[in-house]
Amino acid sequence: MENHSSSSSSSSSSPEEENDHHNLLNESVSQIPPSTFAVENLRSRLTRTFKLNLTKKQLIIIFLPLLFVFVYLSTDFTIKIPDFLYRPKTESNRAHKTGLSPVIRCRKLDQKITGRKTVQWKPKPDKYLLAICLSGQMSNHLICLEKHMFIAALLNRILVIPSHKFDYHYNQIIDIDRINTCLGSNVVVSFDKFKKKKKHNHHVRFICYFSKPELCYVDKEHLTKLKSLGISINGKLDSPWEEDIGKPSNKTVEEVESRFGSDDDVIAVGDVFYANVEKEMVMQPGGPVAHKCRSLIEPNRLILLTAQRFIQTFLGKNYIALHFRRHGFLKFCNAKNPSCFYPIPQAAACITRLIEKVDAPVIYLSTDAAESEIGLLQLLLNLNGKNVPLVKRPPRDSAEKWDALLYRHGLEGDSQVEAMLDKTISAMSSVFIGASGSTFTEDILRLRKDWRTASYCDEYLCANEPPNFVADHE
């Protein structure tokens, strides 16, 4: 019994006995020689290191894919192709947002010359139409003259160019003889030649295109001038229809032929600048009359050559032309909504954007602006830290030969000749910036259309935005 109880008590020892037992073991360990302790310690450290490395590998295996997913979702992997790989090499090598070269971006318009709708101009030998153009300045008169040609062709009449005593000196500005060459027959004649041919019979019947605000849009002063030139008015002024200059209606070829057909030798229809006859035909490249030239109304040869010499001297092949209309334009533009008169800084910003697109080194400036406005505009025209020069025609200098032709023929200093010279230089530019509402600009656009120099980048100044400040009305 005692033996059984003692064995039972030894197998289930008390906590105090277990502590004593561990203490004895610790004492034994502390008595182990140093060499034996070092081996065991190394083994323990290796075991712990192995377990630690295993834990890192597990972490890498678990979290590495997650890291890749996070990087993929948070990073833009769009590949940016350097500009030089698709942009042609240019002198300035400027960066363009579109990546297209100026040649492609501002290429010439396809004018679609084939398929033009035109009329033949085959005048009867003794039937004349006297051109009368009184509205506005020279640009208005040239547009009026082109419309007179259309009407003369419809009525089978020879067009009489007005005398310089009644109108501008057209012979100094446009090439009249060339018009006959383009048509292959005598379709226009100067007033002096007309007088010689008709001798004493200078009776003119007025069949007025416009009835309002006054018949034929001719005032008493100009009727007096006509009489002083030997022109007598046959009967009274009359109009075959109600037509107001303020609200011109669309007219067809058939309407003009039926209303203005006449057996009279000489007729006049008055100023037709505002006339609206077959607008789509008139706006075609080359105009509504069939001919073998680029354009019927062009600068005379002296002006054309002078423009070419100026371009060769100052501008070169690639330049922007700017018609910057200012004088008298503030009130005119502010009567419109939106206005077309821009503060100089805003105008400079619009021009600079186009310069960047065109990549042109210079701008030809045709303007009536004051020097203070031109100076500020020039100061603000900067691209990539460089100023883009505005080039105007300089005053006459005997050392320069580009304008020698005009000087030798006594045309130097003539305001209308200089205006046509401005137009010609502008019409030959790579890109043209015009003034909205200006007939000077519209005549340049006509030349560019006819000469096939119009560009996809041609525009009116700040065309897509209104002025950022407009003054109140009076």
In short:
GO terms for molecular function: peptide-O-fucosyltransferase activity. The chain is α/β, with parallel strands linked by helices and 474 residues long.
Descriptive terms for the model:
single chain, 474 residues, alpha/beta, Rossmann fold, 3 domains, six-stranded parallel beta sheet, five-stranded parallel beta sheet, 17 helices, 43% helix, disordered N terminus, carbohydrate metabolism, fucose metabolism, glycosyltransferase
- Give the number of domains: 3
CATH architecture title of the largest domain: 3-Layer(aba) Sandwich
Distance between the termini: 134 Å
Low-confidence segments, given as residue ranges, are 1-15, 24-37, 76-98
> Which series of helices and strands comes N to C?
HHHHEHEHEHEHEHEHHEHHEHEEEHHEHE
Secondary structure tally: strands:
13
CATH topology of the largest domain: Rossmann fold
Radius of gyration: 44 Å
Helix content: 40-55%
- Within the largest sheet, what's the order of strands? 3-2-1-6-4-5
Q: For the record, what CATH class of the largest domain applies?
A: Alpha Beta
Number of helices: 17
Principal-axis shape: globular
Q: Quickly give the structural class.
A: alpha/beta
The profile of the biggest β sheet is:
6 strands, parallel
Mean pLDDT: 83
Strand content: 5-15%
